[in-house]
Amino acid sequence: MTSFRIQGGTPLKGAVRLGGAKNASFKLMIAAACGVGESRLLNMSKIGDVEVTYKTLEAIGVKCSRPGDNTVYIVGNGLSTDTIPHFTGEKTRAATLFAGLLLNKKGRAIIPLPGGCSLGDRPIERHLDGLRAMGATINYSDQGIEMEAKDGLHGATYNFEKKSHTGTEALIIAAVLADGKTIIGNAGLEPEIDDLITFFNEMGGKVKRVGESIEIIGVKTLHGATHYVMPDRNEAVSYATMAIATKGDIIIEGARENDLRAFLTKIDEIGGKYEVTPYGIRFWYENPLRAVDIITAPEPGFMTDWQPLWTTMMTQANGTSHVVEAVTQHRLAFTEQLRAMGANIEYFDPAPTNPVEFYQFNYPEKVSYPHAAIITGPTSFHGFEMTVPDLRGGATLVMAAIMAEGQSLIHNIELIDRGYENFDERLRMLSAQIERV
Question: Do 213 and 258 share a structural domain?
C-alpha cells in the first residue's frame, strides 16, 4: 500500500490540463464493446476505473489496445463469457453497466455486487428494476447477481423514482440493442450522460433527450466510431478549490463553463475569482472568502462529488457555513480527519419536512450517518496522519494537507488513483511538496 507524504504551506500556482472525465470514460469503453468493429476513444485518462474496465473487457473476450497516448481502441466482436470477474465488483461500482452488454450479446449476465468507494448504501435496485422492465429475470446467488433474457431485451418505459446518474447510463446501454422503443423517465441530466448518448449515436444508435426523459429506439447492430472524451469537471473543481483555498492561482486548461455553472455561481458568492477563456478557466484567490451555504442536488444542482472539496475550502472562509449532503448517504466521513487537523466542524440535522423526497438515497436508512455540517472559519490546519475514506474525500485530504502547517501522511491513496491521473506529479508541477512513498 502506497501513501502520500506532504509538507504543507505552499500556495498552488501554474497550469494543469484536464484529462477525460472519469464518469464518462470507462462507461464509453463498455459502450464501445456493444458495437461490431473497432472504436477509438481519445483523451482517456490513465486512472484506476479505466484500468479495471480495460481488464474486465479483456476478461470477457473484448479486444482492447492502447496504440497511442491517452488512447484506447476496442473491438467488440463477440464475447467469450457471460460472467464479469469478481475483481470488477471489488474495485468499482460499474458492474451493473456491463449487464446490458452481456444480456444483449449473450442472453445472460452474472455480475458481482458493485464496490468502489464506501459512500453508504448505493441503491442499485433502481438499475435492476429498469432491466426487469426490459425483460430480464434477476436472481441473487453466491456468484453475485444472475440475470437472464433468453429472448433478448425489449423496449419498455421506466421512470426512476429518484434521479440516478449511473442507473440512467445502465439502461441506455441495455436499450440501444433492445427490441423496440425504451423511454427512461426522470433520467439523469449530467453532461457525462450526454457524452455517452453522443457516442452511441456516432456508432449508429438512436438515442435522444426529450425534456427530462431519454428515448432510445433499439437497433440491430452498432458499428465502431471515434470519440473524444469530454473533460473531467470533477477534476476541474478539485484544482479550482485548491487554487482558492491555498491562496494560489491555477489555470485549468479544458475546463468548460457550461459544465460548472452551479459551482461558478457559488464561487461568485464566496468572493473567489475566476476568468473564463477560450483555453479553459483560471481560478485564483484575491480577498478573504465569505462563508456560503450549499445543499447538494442532482444535475443541474451542486454536485455531491464537489461537496468534500467545497467543505474543506469553507474552513478558510470568514464566518459560518452550512453544508447539507442530500445526494450521497455517507459523504462526510472525511470531516472527522479535518477536525483532527484543526477544523471547526460540527454535525447537525437539517430536519427536512419530507426526508423521503428530500434525500436522493433510500430513506429511512439501514445505517444512519451525518448528512449536514456547520463549518466555522477561518481555521489553521496542522499536519496529521490520515487514511483516505473515498475518492473525492481523498483529494480533499490532500488539499487540507497542502494547506496545513507541517507534514502529513495520507494512506490508502489507491482510491485517489481511481479518478486522478498522476495526481502527485501534477501537484508537484503546481509547487506542492508531495511525494509518493
Answer: no
Task: Look at strands 181-185 and 157-159 and give their pairing.
Answer: parallel
Question: In one letter, which amino acid is 341?
Answer: M
Pairing of strands 385-387, 407-411: parallel
**53: CATH:** 3.65.10.10
Domain termination residue (choose one: 228, 255, 275)? 228
Q: Report pLDDT digits (tens) over 311-335.
A: 999 999 999 999 999 999 999 999 9
- Going across the sheet that includes 4-7, the strands are 385-387, 407-411, 4-7, 433-436
Instruction: Answer yes or no: is pLDDT of 121 > 70.
Output: no
> Active-site residue 117, yes or no?
yes
Verify that 175 and 248 share a domain, yes or no: no
Q: What is the secondary structure of 87-152 as a DSSP string? A: HHHHH-S-TTHHHHHHHHHHSEEEEPPP-SS--S---THHHHHHHHHTT-EEEEETTEEEEE-TT-
Is 363 found in the same domain as 314?
yes
Q: Tell whether 8 and 34 lie within a shared domain.
A: no
Rg value, the chain, Cα: 21
CB-based contacts of 103: which residues, under 8 Å, 6+ apart?
109, 131, 136, 147, 148, 149, 152, 153, 174
Per-residue CA distances from 213 to 84, 209, 210, 216, 340 (Å): 30, 6, 5, 10, 45
Task: Catalytic residue, from 72, 117, 196, 386: name it.
Answer: 117
- Taking 50 as the threshold, does the pLDDT of residue 231 lie above it? yes
**Sign (positive or negative) of CA dihedral 119, 120, 126, 127:** positive
